Every structure is written in C-alpha cells, then in structure tokens.
Amino acid sequence: MVKAQQFFIKNRRTVVAVMAALLLLAEVGRFAGHSMVAYQIFMAIAGLIGLIPILLTAISSLEIRLISIDVLVSLAVIGAFIIGEFNEAAIVTWLFMLGEVLEDATLQKTRSAVQQLANMAPQTAQVVNDDGTISEEDVDFLDVGTMVQVKTGAQVPVDGKVRDGKALVNEASITGESRLITKQANDEVFAGTILENGTITVETTATGEDTTFGKIIELVEEAQDSQTKAQRFIDRFAKYYTPLVLLVAIIVGLITWDLRLAITVMVLGCPGALVIGVPASTVAGIGNGARQGILFKGSDVMDRLRHVDTIAFDKTGTLTLGRPAVKELLVLKGDRQTIIDQAVAIEQQSDHPLAQAITALPVEQKLTPADVKTIKGQGLQAVITGQEYRLGNQQLVDKLLTDNTQLKAASERLAKAGNSLVIFASADRSELAIFAIKDRLRPQTAQALQQLKQLGVKRLVMLTGDNLGTAQEIAADLPINEVHAEMLPQDKARFIEQERKQGHQVVFVGDGINDSPALSAADVAIAMGSGTDVAMDVSDLVLVKSDLSNLVIGIALANQTMHTMNENIMIALLTVLLLFIGLFAGYVEMASGMLIHELSILIVILNSMRLIKYSPKVDHHQFLVPANDLE
Amino acid sequence: MEKVMMKLGGLTCPSCLTKIQKSVESVDGTKDVKVLFNAGKVKFTLDPALTSTDTVQENIEKMGYAVQGVKTKEL
C-alpha cells in the first residue's frame, strides 16, 4: 500500500493529466458520439483513478486516528459512486488532485526564500591530510581541529581560525555587509562566507549546524514552523472541525434521507483554505525577512511586534556606532605628544571602549608602564620611568589634585558637548590633560526612529550606562521621548519589567552581548549586529546587519504578514459561509463546491506570495550621508 | 543519546506533519520529536541502546514518505 501511495505522490501530475484526458473523452462521447454509456464509463474510470490515491491517504490518516480532509473527500466520492453520479466523483477527485499539484507548486514558492538560504550552506571541504595531500570530504564528517584548504572563489566550509595564508573574504552571508575583509593567520573565518581572492588553510572550530551560518539557517527553519496563537487555534479547531463536518453530514443524511445532500456537505465542509492560509502567510513573511538578514525567531514574534507601544534602545553600538573616538585633547599642563605616548601605553592594558579610543592615537615612542592597577569604576593607575600617573574619571584624579578650577570648568564644558571624559594626571602635577571622547550616531538612526514613530510606536526610550550629559546630547537631535542614563545592565532589565507591569508592550533593542538581562525582560527582544550565539539565544528577532532601518523594515513586515494572515482567515471563513448559503439556496453542487474550495486555497496562497516580494516604502537613499561624514 | 535529523521529501499537507510526528514517537527510545513542515525535516533525540535510525526511517517510509538523508550527532 505504501508503494502505491508513493507511486501516486510521485506521479501526481501524470495522474491529473490522465484524468483530464478521460474527462475530455467523456464529454466528447456525450456530445459528439451521443453516447451516455461511453460518458458514464469514462467518468467512472476517471473517478476510480482519482479516488485511489485519496483513499490511500485517508486510510493512513485513519490508522493514526486522524480524520483528515482526504477522509471527507473519499467518503463523498464513494457516496457519489453509490448514487451513480460518476461524473461528480470524477470531477471532484480531479479538482482535488489538481488543487494539490497547484498548492504544492505555490507552497514551494512561499518557501523559496529560506530554501535559497539553506542551499547556500557549504557541502564539501578540501581537507589537508597529515601527509600534505588534499582530499574532498563532506562537511558533516569533519572533526574540530581538521585543517581545510580554501581557494579563490570557494566557500569557506567551516567556522575556524586561519592558520596559514592570506585572503580577501566576503562575509555578506553572516554580517549582511558586502565588503571584502582581509583574513590572515589567527583571524576567524565563518562557514558560508566566500573567499574572493587568495588561499588559506583553516583549522576547524565548528561544522554544519554548529557554525554561525548553520545556526542562522536552523533558527529560520524552526521559526517558519513556530505557530502564532491564531494558528494554534486553527489547528485545534481543524482537529475537531473535520470530524464535525462528517457528523453534520451524517445527521443531514439521516434527517433528509438524501445521500446526495449529505455528501455535498462533506465536500463543502473541507477546511482547506483555513489550514493552509495561516502557515503560508507566515512562511512567506519569515522568508522575506531572512533574505534581508532580518531573522524572526517565530511567527508569534510578528504577532507580538504588532502590539508594541514602547521601544527601548541601548545607546552604545545600537543608536551609535559603538566606536568611540577622541574628539579633543585638551592639554592643561605638559607636552602634548609625551602625554599621548604615556596615555596610549597605559590604556593598552585595558579593553574598555574609551581606552580603545585613546590607543588609536598615533604615538612617537613606545613606553612600557609598570605596576598597572585597575581602580574599579574609575580608571587606571601606572608608573612610567619612576613617575606615577592616573588615567580615568574626575573621582580618580581628585585624590591627586586639590581643587583645580581650570580642570573643573573645562570638564564641564566638554561633558556638556556630549563627550565622555578621561583625565590624565601625573602625581607630581607637572602633566594634566583631558581626553574628550565621543561616539557617533549611526547614519540611519534619526531617519529610522522617525519612521518607527510613523509606524505607530508611541514611545522611544534610550537606556544607557553612560553619563546623563552625554546621553542627553546624543538624544537631543533624535525623536526620543525619554533618556535614562547611568544604568547598569540589571537596571535596564528592571526598567523594562516596570514598564510591562504598567501594561506597556516593550521592545528592547541591544547588541545582544552585555544586554542579555534587558533582552530577556522585554516582550520582544531584538539583537542587532551579526548573528552571535548569545544574541540568537536570548533574542526574538536578530538583525544581522547593524542597520536600524532594518528594524523599521522588520516591524513593517511583521505588520504586513499579520495583516495577510488575517485576510486569509477571512477569505477561508467567507468561502465556507458562501458555499453553505449557496448549497441551501440550491446553487452549489458537489463539483462546483469543490472548484470554489480549491480556488479559495489558491487565492490564500497567492495572497501570501505577495509577502515574498513585499518591501515597505523605506527609502534607503535617504540614509546615505556623504562618505566623509561616516568617518 | 544521539541527536538525529532526517530530511524528508516535500510535505504538502499539515496532516502529514501529524502522521510523521506520531510514527516517529511510536518508536521506543525516541524523544523530543519535532517535525519541521516547511523545511521538510524531522528532528529528534534517540537512545541507541533502544533503537536505531534505521527503525525510525522504516517507520516513516511505511507511512509513505521518502527519507532523503539522515544526520546524527552524539550528545
């Protein structure tokens, strides 16, 4: 039986074509040959051919106690045979199978975006064996530590570290940014990225589903099958609905003693468009997002996004580039270059973002500091050639300097201009300087926030660990409603919890690494910038590209997807309603009912397919700023 | 325990999903069965002491679905 079932699934198109030919022959027999016998015979053969595969599926459904649509159709067709309506049986089965063929093809289309993504996953790798020879192997059988060679034009097959060679790599599949990055010894490379030029040998650190790219695919695949509340409801509904239709048909049959009416009820009651309409829309919507690096973790995320009224942003790395740079060096005492050389030498011992801004300054001589101590929350202390230096905030140097009005005034002015300050002082008071450091807004920030407001988000909130002056200065030119500064990660989480308690639907947008508490507290957690593990674990929506306009597109896409889903539900319900009104008014029969059913299924799938190409009216060119403004 | 992923031929009807889910679950030694309708995949964990991927594959094929590929990973 299984073999027969597989045969029919494989040759569904042929079966539909054969049936179509038989239907034609029957009509030819009736009109040209004036032979009702030929007509009935051809129709009966077509009906039988059509019934077999449907009946087989129905039986296997019943084996697991599932009353599926196939069961309804099989019973209806058998009923039609009993009352001698061979033509009804033939047309109904033919339409049903034609519908399946068309649904199959169109569903493939709604799934295509994700399929394309999955197809981009590397399959084989050039493994460097111990004796230096190279052999091709399936990526799934590679172990961590295996050396693989990647040449020009090839895909990097694994996540790993470059051990040898140098190459230009396009990491668009991971970061969404299509630019070439030079990779050499000890650099990390990612599976799925393309090596544009050069040859490298890579030591494997992860393969297959464990790679960053593999995780992106897995996330999207699982997202497609996650369910919205509406879908869960419909699935539960369909489970009872189909048996209910069967029951109603039996009751109608018993009351009216009209077998014809009873089987018509069975055909008309099929829930086709309802069960396919919801997943078809979410699959297309999620696929569309995935193609642009907007990774929804599930269709319920789209549902929740629609009701959001508050969006809270982390500042550094989200609204701003997260790459602070020294804007001004104010030297109050001492030689400028000597101070830079000393400050760079000391800050090289720290990985604080502000320290990185200072170490980017050009040095004239390399110095080696001794006794470097970190004073928590304040800065660093170190000794260079016998002299003690301090490098950090006001508090740190206060102990060293007695009231210095000049320093105070300068600090105040620089802080007001939105700078973060690092003060450099020597213990002997011969050297004193202020490094004014500023992060920049991302070029798209202002525009994106404006558009979020247009999409109906009521409140935009900035949450930052930075000082209030800096935060307010950055927020000044943005349509931000509230600024909350000097917050620790847990403060951000607490803020979000409170807002939610007050009945707000809150989104948090962060970079996913140090913001995990806030991300977990939010209704919808959005992580921005490259698909890191942590980001994918705690967030509901990952924006692969560090581009806030993708947040706008994501929200618009979510709205549109939910809108399409509701349209589909309406279409499905209206179809059933109209069919039954038509039936009792006497206009609809079994075959025409089936036709309308199949049409409604195609309509909801086609309606969903519009989502694949959907792109909200976000003008990317508006985000373009002159290149010199970017850095 | 092993984590198993089987790639199936295209699934077209939501009832296929239930069928495959039940047929995999019916094998002793399988757990956390998840059928991905759109990706055409079934994922589950398997206790190699109780059963094998071959048994599960047979069960799925008995329902009329083709298994196109099997991947396993030790947990």
Explain this structure to me?
The complex is a heterodimer of chains A (631) and B (75). With 631 residues, chain A is an alpha+beta fold. Chain A has a domain at 325-438: Calcium-transporting ATPase, cytoplasmic domain N. In chain A, strands 1, 2, 3, 4, 5, 6 and 7 form a 7-stranded antiparallel beta sheet that branches. In chain A, strands 8-20-19-18-9-16-17 form a 7-stranded mixed beta sheet, sandwiched between helices. Chain A is elongated, with a radius of gyration of 33 Å. Chain A starts with a helix and ends with a helix. Chain B has 75 residues and is an alpha+beta fold. Chain B is built from 2 helices and 4 strands. The radius of gyration of chain B is 11 Å and the shape is globular. The A-B interface holds A 2, 5-6, 9, 56-57, 60-61, 64, 66, 68-70, 100, 103-104, 107-108, 111, 114, 118, 140, 208-209, 221-222, 224-225, 235, 238, 275-276, 279, 283 and B 5, 9-10, 12-15, 18-19, 22-23, 34-39, 41, 61-64, 66, 71, 73.
